[in-house]
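Tokens as discussed.
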């Protein structure tokens, strides 16, 4: 049987209380002429599957044991929490995706979202500790515990997400910046070029040597343009993608 102490032993997780609200229409004599009149009602348990990050307040393990009713507690994992401006990488993004695909439909599991791309998950302790859910709850506890030994749920999924980010960065700035850098390096004034052919040269350079990109904090992708203009792409290769140019 799973106990609260079993849950409190899981490292790199936080315990949180939920403080949400909803608007309820007034049903008061004399207000019938104002059907849109509403008042705010506090909630200690979410009524939707998505939770605002700001509605969760972290508490200490001691507070959990001493003061807080189990029905108001939610477990979050550091390995599935990320935003655009933190120290996360693609591991947290992949873990969150895999976990929510597997458990997101369960009634005690919630998606958590906030500003600046903040994303996480939260699990209701009353659901985890319900004997009716013991088999699935044990799976989740084992999964969260295992992340402390190896922090990635699926290496292949994480790698695929990294490569998707690389391709997005290529389309966003990598191809044009590489063309500009190669143009300067080889003394060529480029008027027009074939983007797809240059993209394939960049992809070949990435496949055939050290990776030319890295995933930075916040999950963004950085392409090493300086590395690209070493012999990884020669002048002769560069000329094959140009459709209108002249030597400077």
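Sequence:
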């Amino acid at each position: 049987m799973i106990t609260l102490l079993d849950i409190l032993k899981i490292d790199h997780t936080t315990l949180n209380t939920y403080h949400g609200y909803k608007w309820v229409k007034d049903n008061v004599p004399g207000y019938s002429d104002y059907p849109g009149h509403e008042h705010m009602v506090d909630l200690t348990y979410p009524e939707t599957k998505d939770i605002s990050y700001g509605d969760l307040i972290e508490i200490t393990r001691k507070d959990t044991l001493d003061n807080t009713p189990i029905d108001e507690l939610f477990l979050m994992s550091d390995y599935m929490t990320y935003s655009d401006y933190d120290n996360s990488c693609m591991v947290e993004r992949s873990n969150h995706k895999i976990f929510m695909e597997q458990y997101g439909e369960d009634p005690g599991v919630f998606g958590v979202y906030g500003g600046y791309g903040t994303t996480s998950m939260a699990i209701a302790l009353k659901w985890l500790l319900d004997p009716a859910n013991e088999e699935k709850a044990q799976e989740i506890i084992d999964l969260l515990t295992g992340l402390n030994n190896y922090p990635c749920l699926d290496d292949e999924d994480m790698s695929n997400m990294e490569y998707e980010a690389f391709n997005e960065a290529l389309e966003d700035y990598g191809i044009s910046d590489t063309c500009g850098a190669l143009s300067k390096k080889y003394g060529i004034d480029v008027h027009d070029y074939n983007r797809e052919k240059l993209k394939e040269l960049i992809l070949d350079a990435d496949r055939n040597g050290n990776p030319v990109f890295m995933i930075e904090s916040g999950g963004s992708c950085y392409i090493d343009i300086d590395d690209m203009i070493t012999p990884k792409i020669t002048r002769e290769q560069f000329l094959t993608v140009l459709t209108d140019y002249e030597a400077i």
